[in-house]
Amino acid sequence: MVEKIREIARKLLGEGKVDVVLGYEKGTGPLSERPFVARTVEEVEKLTYSPFAIQNLATYLPRFNNNKVAILARGCTTRAINVLISEGQIERDKIYVIGIPCNGVIKTRELRESIGEEIEDVSIQNGEIVIKTPKEEKKVKFEDWLNISCKYCEYPNPLFYDVLVGEEVKPRGGGYPDVEEYEKLDEDERWEIFEAEMSKCVRCYACRQSCPMCYCEHCFVDSTEPRWIEPGFDKTDLESWHLIRVLHMAGRCVDCGTCELVCPEGVKLLFLTRKVARDLKRDFDYVSGLNPEKPPFFGEFRYDDKGDFIL
Amino acid sequence: MKRVPLSELERIYEALKNYGNVWVRKKNAYETAETPEELLSTVSKVKKPAKFILLPEEEPLLAFVQDGKNVTFQETIREAKGVIFGIPPCEAKAISLLDLNFLQGEGEDVYYKKRRENILLFGLACLAPDSRCFCTTFGYGPFTESFTDIFGVVVDDMLLFEGITEKGKDLVKNLDVEDAKGEELKKLEAMKKEITERVKKLDIQGIQEKLARMMDSEIWDRISSSCLGCGACTYYCPTCYCFDIQDVERPNWGYRLRTWDSCMFTLYTLEGSGHNPRPELKYRWRNRLMHKFNYYPVLYQEFGCVGCGRCIEVCPVNIDIREILMEVKNEPIRA
Amino acid sequence: MNPYAPELYRIKKTVFESDDFTLKSFLLEPVNGNMMDFIPGQFCEISVFGKGEAPFGIASAPHEKEGLLFTVNRVGLVTGALHEMEEGHIVGIRGPLGNGYPVDEFKGKSVVIIGGGFAFTTLRSLTLYLLENRKDYGKITVIYGARRPGLLLYKEDLANWEKRGDIELHLTVDTEFPEWDKHVGFVPQVLEKVAPSPENAYAVVCGPPVMIKFTLPVLAKLGFEKDKVYTSLERRMKCGIGKCGRCNIGPYYVCKDGPVFSLAQLEKLPKEY
Amino acid sequence: MADYEPKILTILCNWCSYAGADLAGTSRIQYPSNIRVVRVPCSGRVNPQFIVKALRDGVDAVWISGCHPGDCHYITGNYFARRRFYVLKDLLEYVGLEKGRIHFSWVSASEGKRFADIATLVTKEVKKLGPRKKFVKRR
Asked: Would you call A228 an interface residue with chain D, using a CB distance cutoff of 8 Å?
């Protein structure tokens, strides 16, 4: 698969069809694969791909609006591209999509931290992640460390592509069991968990910056007039920040999970975004990023929208 | 050198406790120890550095009351007294770098000073440098004692330690502990050599001068191309200190709050007029790297980095400052 | 001493400087009666409690003991709140901050003061200082321009200076206006026309970036050396004492080592301003 | 809790609900004084951030009222609002905020009685909940 990606990239850059190829390269140490912008044929040799490549590459697209770009795209990446097109941020014909059917990405940070010691090498064998530390060889189940969105992903295959690398995979079958699980808890338990999660936030905004949909130049969190979110670390400010961000994501979030995967404090965010995605799908039959022609969720309405909560 | 068996740490714990709060290493942050056993923490790199104690992520500077057209205010200096137990040399050095900014020059930062003066650094040698550590690059190592007040090493089941500064010596003097034995000291020396060598040293000779000539290099484009522009690297960095001051308003009162800021944010330099002297990520990256490896040396003859590797670990896209330094080193300078 | 604790000042007088009501001047007097000493070109952090702090150049001259004068352009949170304030309101002042113009270095020399728009604030301070110590300085030339007559600051002072024989004042506006009998054209053009001699002279330039950009080549053409041209920079600032990090240009902090720099100094620094 | 008088931020659209409140007043229909009215052009103008901010800044509950579906002065403003409020309300309740802190209603200009009834109902419900313990600023 990696060889195929390089071959395509080499050809695209060599023939001058694109200026850059957005892909992944090996990170520092095992269990990390990071975004990489290949600009020359030589640099193509660095390109690689594995389930440890967590960042959704669509985040970088608006930066390259003046270039022809090839992008490695999973299902969620293509959905993000669709949303970005529908919101007028990028143009489809400037983007060459190298589609990658995806088996899900691994919660690399969480896994690394759970190991707690130096990791020398990592490989994936027969549905298991084999982790070599100086002391021992640990095996953990691939499924257990899957990003929660990937676990229930309905769109693992790129929705569109200019070239596809590998065979399409079978969707894991959607659903939102994690959200339903949370809903079963009683009100106070839910609030306690929510508050505990949010108070971990250090306001580094890695979630916002890594999100393909957070392209706003001026974020509401930085606004001083009016001051939606006050400076400092009051719980209510952290909570409001994440709640409102999730609201801004309604109908736009493509459930790639990047925000949660990159958070240095491991703040759980997907239980919020996925809750909204579930509501939209269940009650409005709306799934984000399937169609670049469709207006944004909050930009349209139906006369028979749910209204029974209104007195 | 003094010695105390790890099983009898309560002998020094009481003395530390008498001095003030005792912070110990926990996985995520330095926390107050409730029992002497907690001194035994084996965490080798605390995620949130000790900077969080000296320069907390938020801190009210003033509180004010408004009464019609009148205003009165009060300074709200939050003091702290205690011992940071087990702080590794890299973080202790980082604090010495923070001191350069906050305690030197015409305007001493009283808020920082009030805490710094009363916090004792009980350093411990770092026995488990990981693959992201590169402290030896900066002329010190996992066994360097000079940035701490008291410095110790755990050798087998024994804690060997000694006072370094006057303050540290005073505290050690009054402890009921015996002198370290010859063979323990010998073992310590062997450990020091072995562990120090384990840390991968970078050759950054001449980087300061090189950077000075690279202002207009295209390398900044390349370096910043995968950067997302979040503030994780700077927030977890033990030497980054940039802060913001904002007011919080309530009906008829309010407070002035100092919070961390990051040079990687657009807003950091955005002016009221809308003009931004560092409009793109590449300029912000240039400033961050220059600050640590050129401006800091120009101002204080010290690099603004201690090689702890935290930024490498917390970066969402795993940008590795070591690779960048090497890239800078190897980049040809165009005429 | 706490460098973050402001002194309380009371607003003594306010006056709109421009006809579009975006520029308002505030005369401030210390609540405790102790006026600060300062050098022209220095600035202060003004606190509007509850809104925050912002830096403003001091527009009054050190010898004007009736109060500190600041002229504030309404742009954001702090300046907006400041504009709403009236006589008697209390604000906080931290300062004087920064280095100020090298008035001692100017001694015995001629000084050409070139200003544009509302950046004339610290230049007013400088001009008044030079006039107060008139015998110490050579020829004083002031070239000041704005888009239209209504945007020129300190009209009373300008009228006074026009009457004096010991200062050469050139006012200009961008385009023709009824009843405007002075220069018409941009500041750099007027500078070229006036052509002050670089002989034994210093130039001080303050204004919007675009004005500065076109003024500097004219100064070079006239023969002003780079170490004889000074300008005052603006940057986002918070602490004002070189601690918070944001206003650095190279290893220098605009708040502490600036805001006044010579062109010779700036040439060696990254173009981050 | 008998003497607990909650503050309820009430955002009313100019054309229907505000007129409805007016009618309630001119018709001398009694309703609780706990509501604090803000008039907006249309319920579609209400940004969910307003609601979150108001709660955080200390009101006990928020009630938003607009024109009945089909009656919007701007034709469709309230339909857009309906979607937003649905998502917001569900999300806030999902994270554990008590049900009954946010209310929405449609009240037309002729429904003075209905306005007073809903005001009474909302106030009663909020009183039942008591002072807010969640989402409260520490200082």
From this structure: yes
Chain B CB contacts of C30 under 8 Å are none
Question: What's the pLDDT score for residue C132?
Answer: 93
Q: Do B228 and A59 lie within an 8 Å CB cutoff?
A: yes
User: Looking at the domain assignment, is residue A309 inside a domain?
Assistant: no
Rg of chain C over CA atoms, in angstroms?
Answer: 18
Contacts of C76 in chain A (CB under 8 A): 224-225
| Run of H or E including A80 | helix A75-86
- Which partners does chain D have (≥3 C-beta pairs < 8 Å)? A
User: How many residues in chain D?
Assistant: 139
Span A182-205, mean pLDDT?
95
User: Measured between alpha carbons, how far is C118 from C46 in angstroms, rounded to an integer?
Assistant: 18
Residue carrying the six token digits 């770092």: B126
Neighbouring subunits of C (3+ Cβ pairs under 8 A):
A, B
Looking at the structure, do residues A70 and A210 belong to the same domain, yes or no?
yes
Hey, is B132 helix, strand or coil? coil
Give the bridge partners for C157, in sequence order: none
Q: Which pLDDT tens digit goes with each residue over C66-101?
A: 999 999 999 889 999 999 999 999 999 998 999 999
Average pLDDT in chain A? 93
* H/E segment holding residue B11: helix B10-19
User: What is the predicted pLDDT for the residue at B48?
Assistant: 94
Token representation of residue C111: 């000084």
Pair C79, C40 in one domain: yes
Burial class of residue B99 (count of CB atoms within 10 Å of its CB; 0-12, 13-18, 19+): middle
| Residue A309 pLDDT class (50, 70, 90 cuts) | confident
Under a CB-based contact definition with an 8 Å cutoff, are residues C269 and B135 in contact?
A: no
Residue A138, in any domain of the structure: yes
B262 to A204: CB separation less than 8 angstroms, yes or no: yes
Q: Is the peptide bond before C96 cis (omega within 30 degrees of 0)?
A: yes
ipTM: 0.91
pLDDT number for residue A79 = 96
Q: How confident is the model at residue A134 (pLDDT cuts 50, 70, 90)?
A: confident
Count H helices and E strands in chain B, helices first.
13, 12
CB C14 within 8 A of CB C86: yes
**Is pLDDT above 90 for A29?**
no
Name the pairing type of β-strands B253-260 and B58-67.
antiparallel
| Token pair 């952290």: residue | A238
Same domain, A188 and A48: yes
For residue D1, the model assigns a pLDDT of 52
Structural domain contains residue B273: yes
Q: Is the dihedral of CA B311, A268, B260, A214 positive or negative?
A: positive
- Quick count: other Cβ atoms within 10 Å of Cβ B208? 17
Interval A290-306 mean pLDDT: 91
